[in-house]
């Protein structure tokens, strides 16, 4: 595949579906979610949360750069596959360094150099894609500049380190608006599917958190009840994102947009928005770990807020995404977001199990009301006499029902 010699505006070829190597890459990347969850669960306070927010931003924006790149430059040659493997090793080193990156010099240094490897590989893959030297010259300084800030921050401590890494993340965030990113060829189906896979893999972290919290505990009814209810909450997040078949509508909306608007929408929804989704999953998973570890005990304010707040952040971002693409209904989801705040006192005054049970009740009521008020259409009946495929007709009716 080659990109336009005047810049990455035209692509001769792009991938419609996510490759297994990209999925493998995502599995390595999502290891960072596991590490960040462990770190935030250990230091669930303002300082710990601030560190986690900054690290996730630094890592997420570089990962996002790989999504954009492999969307237009499929890893279908030996050289590209080998480069992607090297990038994976860089992400692995970054992930291994996360738990102690702010308190141990060796871990901080490993984080910085691992991040530099990830960045250089991204630039190298861009270079072998056939893009013009001018395009590379516009994009590379931002990526490498961000990596340099991360490496320099590794030699600092406390607030200066956080500030340096925050500056690195900021540089990554503004880069698309100052380079050719808005002209980059974007295949909507691949892009939407890739981010959906990242979300479902990240949701697996909440399952891991259940197992981590239950380690060394007696498997009594209280623990089993808490574990079952928390897996129901993870299922509710899956349902919010995937259960109403929004993906086909999102792809259609993206494909109908002019290239620049399509890329801007992709940057907004799948850059900023999915960062918030992952942050919500992280907070929720940290809360789950605390709840399962002490199901009959009261949670402190940070633990109770993380449990409900992570879910609220995820659902609120999901609502914002649906509104962006004209998908409805959303009123019951908004109601669930507002109601989650009322469950926090239960965790603080009663027990972790009480808060989890209350959250399950809130999300169940919201889901049932949404399905009863806006039931799934009958695909066969909807297609009768239209000449359209039943599934497609059913999807259109669902999108218009709000």
Please characterize this protein's 3D structure.
It is a single chain. The chain is mainly α. It folds into 2 domains: 20-185, no CATH class; 202-400, no CATH class. 77% of the residues lie in helices and 0% in strands. It is built from 16 helices and no strands. It has helices at 20-42, 46-72, 78-97, 105-127, 133-153, 158-178, 188-214, 221-242, 246-256, 259-293, 301-324, 331-340, 344-349, 352-373, 379-383, 390-400. The longest helix is centred in the last third of the chain and has 35 residues, at 259-293. The chain starts with 19 loop residues before the first helix and ends with a helix. Keywords: Membrane, Transmembrane, Transmembrane helix.
Summarize this structure briefly.
The protein is mainly α. It has helices spanning 20-42, 46-72, 78-97, 105-127, 133-153, 158-178, 188-214, 221-242, 246-256, 259-293, 301-324, 331-340, 344-349, 352-373, 379-383, 390-400. It folds into 2 domains: 20-185, no CATH class; 202-400, no CATH class.
């Amino acid at each position: 595949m080659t990109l336009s010699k005047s810049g990455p505006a035209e692509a001769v070829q792009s991938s419609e579906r996510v490759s297994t190597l990209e999925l493998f890459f995502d599995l390595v990347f999502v290891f960072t979610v596991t590490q960040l969850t462990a770190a935030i669960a250990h230091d669930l306070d303002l300082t710990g949360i601030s560190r986690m927010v900054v690290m996730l931003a630094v890592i997420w924006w570089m990962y996002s750069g790989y999504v954009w790149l492999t969307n237009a430059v499929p890893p279908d040659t030996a050289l590209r596959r080998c480069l992607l493997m090297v990038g994976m090793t860089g992400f692995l080193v970054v992930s291994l360094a996360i738990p102690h990156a702010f308190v141990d010099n060796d871990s901080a240094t490993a984080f910085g150099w691992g991040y530099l490897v990830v960045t250089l590989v991204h630039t190298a893959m861009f270079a072998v894609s056939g893009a013009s030297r001018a395009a590379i010259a516009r994009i590379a300084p931002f990526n490498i500049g961000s990596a340099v800030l991360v490496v320099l921050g590794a030699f600092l401590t406390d607030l200066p380190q956080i500030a340096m890494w925050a500056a690195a993340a900021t540089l990554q965030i503004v880069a698309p608006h100052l380079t050719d990113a808005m002209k980059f060829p974007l295949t909507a189906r691949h892009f939407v599917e890739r981010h959906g896979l990242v979300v479902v893999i990240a949701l697996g972290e909440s399952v891991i958190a259940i197992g981590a919290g239950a380690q060394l505990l007696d498997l009594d009814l209280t623990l089993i009840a808490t574990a079952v209810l928390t897996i129901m909450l993870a299922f509710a997040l899956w349902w919010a994102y995937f259960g109403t078949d929004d993906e086909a509508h999102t792809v259609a909306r993206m494909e109908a947009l002019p290239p620049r608007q399509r890329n801007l929408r992709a940057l907004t929804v799948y850059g900023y928005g999915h960062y918030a989704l992952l942050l919500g999953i992280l907070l929720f998973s940290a809360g789950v770990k605390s709840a399962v570890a002490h199901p009959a005990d009261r949670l402190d304010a940070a633990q109770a807020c993380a449990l409900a707040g992570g879910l609220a952040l995820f659902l609120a971002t999901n609502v914002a995404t649906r509104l962006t693409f004209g998908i409805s209904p959303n009123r019951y989801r908004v109601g669930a977001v507002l109601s989650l705040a009322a469950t926090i006192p239960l965790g603080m005054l009663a027990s972790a199990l009480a808060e989890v049970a209350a959250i399950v009740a809130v999300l169940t009521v919201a889901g049932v009301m949404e399905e009863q008020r806006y039931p799934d259409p009958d695909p066969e009946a909807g297609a009768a006499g239209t000449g359209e495929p039943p599934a497609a007709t059913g999807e259109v009716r669902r999108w218009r029902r709000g």
